[in-house]
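Crash report, auto-generated. Payload:
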Amino acid sequence: MKRKGLVMAAGFAVALAVVNVALVPNLKAADPVEEQERQVTGRFLLDTHDGQRVTADSFEGSLRLMAFGYTFCPDVCPTALSTMAAALDELGPDAGQVVPMFVTVDPERDTPERLKEYVGSFDPRFIGLTGTRAMIDGAARQFKVSYKIHPPAQGDDPDVYVVDHSAGIYIMGRQGQFLARLAHTATARDVSDRIRQILARGG
Amino acid sequence: MHRRAFLLASLAAAAAPAARAARARQGLFIHETPVPLPALSVKDGDGRPVELQYPLVLNLWASWCLPCVAELPALDRLKPWADARGVAVVALSLDRAGAAAVRPAYGRIGVTNLAVHTDDTRLAAETLKAPVLPVTVLVDRQGREAARYVGPAAWDQARDLVTALAEGRPITAAMAPPPAKHTGAAP
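Recovered output after restart:
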């Protein structure tokens, strides 16, 4: 009798747990941003601005701060890389545990040389990443980044065109797994605070 | 109406989900009530702190930002004209390298009137809530932000705007300089 009661209680607890498990993913699925973030695998195969082929595993053991974009902004330029660089400054010695990376979605114009000069103007620690269109598309898919290239109008300079891209600053874990995505409007302090939280948790 | 436009623009910038495309509304945004300019860390070419003088045309730029570099010659041409009317023109660089990045850029572009001003903390854009560059903040005689221009502009055609700042008159939409588009290759 006593035992039966225990079993029933256990069964009830299991039923509750099942209900919880069933509810949580449903709630998450209701938020498209969260749903998208759960699909960010963070895998990539790309070339550094120095011509070295790398994957997410090449940075094993380091946290990563990543952004996608392009260097030819004809109208206005996002300040996300500047924010990331200022966040590294705020982290001080802790920045040594973070690899900052910038992936171009415009490999035709962003040559490795151009990329190297560009990221270097923010911080010498930055690694510019590029590749073939297929490699970049692959990485963009794994990060749920979308972009669109607007071809130049007829008669215009063929090197002048606009690229729209989804913006945001990614924080990836030491095994390359997704940890957080901050809006491109995040401040340097937002970024460094989040990294400090991750470090404090032993991440 | 302009205040509404500005509010909409800042809301769009602040509340946009991370996955949304990095697009910003451009043009002149006028505050219905001018807002005090937050404290900025501005240094001159020798690394000495600079106290800003008002009224002021404060342009935020960086050497890595092509449209910023593209509009600097027009701002450089505006400066002596604005100086003569008591309106300061400051191009504030957010380059990490500070003056070492500004001087070669000025040389390349042929800037002769603008002084070297740097913010090597690189926090001026976020202090002024500008998620994109260039942004030019128009500061009235009391040191308040009266309006701002987002994106590159033909600043040598902003004389009405400078005159209004000099005389302490409100800025109107009709005073906006035409936008400038960067059409050439990388410098």
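Post-recovery validation: Chain A touches chain B at residues 33, 36, 69, 71-83, 85-86, 89, 114, 118, 121-123, 144, 146, 148, 156-157, 159-160, 164-168, 181-185, 187-188 (CB under 8 Å).
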